[in-house]
Design goal:
About 90% of the residues lie in helices and about 0% in strands. It is an all-alpha fold. The protein is flat, with a radius of gyration of 17 Å.
Length: about 130
């Protein structure tokens, strides 16, 4: 199972770079550097958060009494991401719609990969 998660994570990360890099260049020319940087940061934070989710799910499967640990680690991860975004927002470095777009792109890639994996699992069960 570990290998499948790593394979999916790599695929999602590569596709995120393929999509976000050109979009950030377009945003740099159409809008400003804040929009471009925010798009990249949104994608980066989404990828880091997805990696944290994978790590948490793997630990839940490996450990018996990990529900409380999983909740604490999830809240800590979200608190760190929220704090970093808040600090960047206070200093005026980021653009909210662009951050949301970066998050959304990675989220849609995760959904797409999940649907592909579900279809593969269904085909295995049907065989």
């Amino acid at each position: 199972m570990q290998n499948n998660w790593d394979k999916s994570f790599k695929k999602i990360s590569i596709w995120a770079v393929y999509i976000i890099a050109p979009l950030s260049l377009i945003a740099l020319f159409l809008f400003n550097w804040k929009a471009s940087l925010s798009l990249i940061l949104g994608g980066f934070f989404a990828i880091v958060n997805f990696r944290g989710v994978i790590w948490g799910v793997e630990n839940i499967v490996a450990l018996d009494k990990s529900k409380s640990k999983m909740m604490i680690m999830t809240l800590f991860r979200l608190l760190v991401i929220f704090s970093l975004l808040l600090i960047l927002l206070i200093f005026g470095v980021i653009n909210i719609p662009a951050i949301a777009a970066g998050f959304s792109i990675v989220f849609l890639l995760i959904l797409k990969e999940g649907l592909v994996r579900a279809k593969e699992m269904r085909e295995i069960e049907d065989a």
